[in-house]
Design a protein that fits this description.
The structure is a homodimer of 445-residue chains. With 445 residues, chain A is mainly alpha-helical. The first copy, chain A, has three domains: 131 residues, Alpha Horseshoe (MgtE N-terminal fold); 117 residues, Roll (CBS-domain); 171 residues, SLC41 divalent cation transporters, integral membrane domain (Tetracycline Repressor, domain 2, Orthogonal Bundle). In chain A, 68% of the residues lie in helices and 6% in strands. In chain A, the strands form two sheets. In chain A, strands 1-2-3 form a three-stranded mixed beta sheet. A three-stranded mixed beta sheet of chain A has the order 4-5-6. In chain A, helix 1 packs antiparallel against helix 2, helix 17 packs parallel to helix 19 and helix 18 packs antiparallel against helix 19. Chain A starts with a helix and ends with a helix. In chain A, 51% of the residues are buried. The interface between A and B is large, with 131 and 131 residues.
Chain lengths: 445, 445
């Protein structure tokens, strides 16, 4: 896909207007909405909007639904009220849930106003849950029958419709509570009069609306079923989480983790307007600046030393960066473990011991290497000893912080993937500089 | 899941042996193999092996299959030849493909030796493809009929078996070429004598064995179907890629991207043996050390300056880190775009222009802020001017390298997620130090 997509971008950007129209028509006829969405995201703002205006009204919704938040907003902002109304016509509840973050509030109201009764009801239901709860992301098209239904009822339903990603039929009691699930394959072979309950799965996972959306989505991916029921706190069936939506949720989560490392989020637009993009990144730069000034302040405590032994200033980056890298290795491992629920009180001590041992080994190894190089470079064995000790101290501190920082952030309900790295490198910078310059002051002056 | 998993880890680590046995029995009876795998990964090596030895032979394979590479190896290494033979009994081709990287070569041969003819044939087929090609990861259980089959044949097949993740039936010609796909829902409602071809999907995506495995897996996730056929270069059906396997491939890819940032891979074991872990991380520290020494060498060129204006040594980390952060924001955005096929020759110039503009804006903003702070701190407006200019230069260089470095790495077929960050910070460190100390030499001496 990636290669083909690159080619299409080239054809759309470099071609004459007539060629562009032809390419676009072909793309819209043969590609999945997801690919069209990726393509539109790859176009510079102006040509993105020009292309978008040529997309027929009936294909727009599907494309918007799979687009990332920020680029989607650029398109919605450009649409006239009439175009938006056309978009809202016959929209399903889950589509409006997906779009509502990118729409001004009054547009959401407008969409609700043209929405049919049942869908509006579903939308209100989803709105009871937060962004990170699975109840917000359920879909409502599913195979459903009363608990006393028989195989013949099941077959009648299957003949009429078989929604995407439906491998089981849900049995629901009078109060609307989910009760059992029956595999379609079980229904097809069985005698007409048999109660469906007799064919139901022995163990079938049920999701609760309040569950974390990513955890729940992963459960769907691992269940072996194509969709799981989602119920409210009273057991009433809210809808289902299918493996398609689950995949989107999980992929979005991972994208968010990757972007968080640089203080951005998964909605970031490749071609965001310059001022908007600069503003959103400035905050992260500002936070980082504070930590850099803090490190500088600690260095400033040793001005006298630096003046007399300038070799220390030259070698400072080595001490800081070895600590930063060693720490980020531990940090990355622990963040993944926390996300998967694999790091907990019970194994924390064992983990810390292991990471400190790994850090100790690498600390000794690199302390020796760096000590020798520095001794030879500056012709002073004492400088070699000073930097070797500082490296050892800093790598050990890095191992400790690499475990402690994300664990503490997680306890505080902060995302370690976002702020873990900034805090960690602040620690390793300061420990590194203070150890190095402090030892230098003691041994070299 | 994550919370429940944490609790289970606690119960297994802290409990008495009898309690442990009870917890384990309950876990094995009620949890998905994926959860048991996560649980085993979370246990320190010794207690992981003790727990593993108590897992009944018939549950072992499913757990091993979903485990990460390195922890899986710790378990396989611990198993006796008899236990391994039991594991190999009746193993499917795709299971051996999954395990073969964690097994010594002679054990793979042994497994092939006890494998049935058909599965061995499938395994040899998968081995024709590389790790990153989708042909290697196909499964072989699927609904298949000759192209001239009718609805009654389809119904007969459906009554007999309905594999996981099967929402279409594949029609295959005499030469074994994939020809059409028919939705199960279409078959169920239709008259017995109708040829299945008449019900087939108009457009149905087909994957080729050589396609990139992650791209192909994403295609499956986006197709709306639960599985797509995979064919060889002659159109012969090799097997299918189902949405369950596709999700695993995509999730593993994202985990790999997250780990690559710290020079590790997705197979890394939370409780790897200390020496093994230290060795695997040492390489990354060594590479980083070379870049740190390079930066130091550039600083060393300005020893005279540093000796006379020690404020420059104090402020060095601010210049380097602002460049590093600004660059990593651009880098992260471009790496994602490259992975999705969204960054290409056609939009590269526009992207560079946008990132340089964003960098320019933030460069000017932070240059002013930092310049003022530095002037006041050291009571020297010239120091303020020197650092302001250096910050502006470095943030611009960061924006340029943030685009150029990953694009060049991608052209060279190197993974920008692995080495992009090291190269980028080397550039921003060196540009930052040289600009800052160079300007300092010119304006302050």
């Amino acid at each position: 896909m990636t290669d083909e997509l690159s080619d299409l971008i080239g054809e759309l950007v470099d071609a004459t207007p007539e060629q562009q129209d032809q390419v676009l028509r072909q793309v819209l006829a043969t590609r999945e909405p997801e690919e069209v969405a990726l393509l539109l995201e790859s176009l510079p703002l102006q040509s993105r909007l020009e292309t978008w205006r040529k997309v027929p009204a009936d294909q727009r919704l599907q494309i918007l639904l799979t687009m990332r938040g920020d680029p989607r907003e650029t398109l919605l902002d450009d649409m006239s009220r009439e175009d938006l109304d056309a978009l809202f016509q016959g929209m399903a509840a889950e589509d409006l849930v997906e779009l509502s973050d990118s729409l001004p509030k009054r547009m959401v109201e407008r969409a609700l106003w043209v929405m049919d009764e049942q869908q509006r009801h579903y939308f209100e239901g989803a709105r009871q849950y937060k962004d990170d709860q699975i109840g917000r992301w359920v879909t409502h098209e599913m195979l459903m029958l009363p608990t006393n239904a028989r195989v013949r009822d099941g077959m009648r339903l299957l003949r009429r419709e078989l929604p995407e990603y439906a491998d089981t039929l849900f049995l629901v009691n009078r109060a609307g509570h989910f009760s059992e699930a029956v595999r379609i394959g079980q229904i097809i072979g069985s005698p007409d009069h048999l109660p469906l309950v007799d064919l139901s799965e022995d163990v079938f996972p049920v999701l609760e609306g309040q569950e974390d959306s990513v955890d729940a989505a992963i459960k769907v991916q691992q269940s072996g079923y194509t969709a799981l029921p989602v119920v409210d706190e009273n057991g009433r069936l809210l809808g289902r989480m299918d493996i398609g939506t689950a995949g989107e949720l999980v992929n979005t989560y991972y994208e968010g983790q990757l972007m968080a490392g640089a203080g951005m989020d998964e909605d970031e637009d490749l071609f965001a307007p310059v001022v908007k993009s600069a503003r959103s990144r400035a905050l992260w730069l500002g936070i980082n600046l504070l930590t850099a000034f803090l490190a500088s302040w600690f260095i400033g405590l040793f001005e006298m030393t630096l003046q007399q032994v300038v070799a220390l200033a030259v070698l400072m980056p080595v001490v800081a960066s070895m600590g930063g890298i060693a720490g980020s290795q531990t940090l990355t491992l622990i963040i993944r473990g926390l996300a998967m629920g694999q790091v907990t009180n019970a194994n924390l001590k064992a983990l810390l011991k292991k990471e400190l041992s790994v850090g100790g080994l690498n600390g000794v190894l690199w302390a020796i290497v760096i000590g020798i190089v520095a001794s030879i470079w500056f012709g002073s064995p004492v400088i070699g000893i000073v930097i070797a000790m500082a490296i050892l101290i800093n790598i050990a501190a890095a191992a400790f912080s690499g475990v402690a920082v994300p664990v503490v952030l997680d306890r505080l309900k902060l995302d370690p993937a976002l702020s873990g790295s900034v805090i960690l490198t602040t620690v390793t910078d300061i420990v590194g500089f203070v150890a190095f310059l402090g030892l230098g002051t003691l041994l070299l002056l």
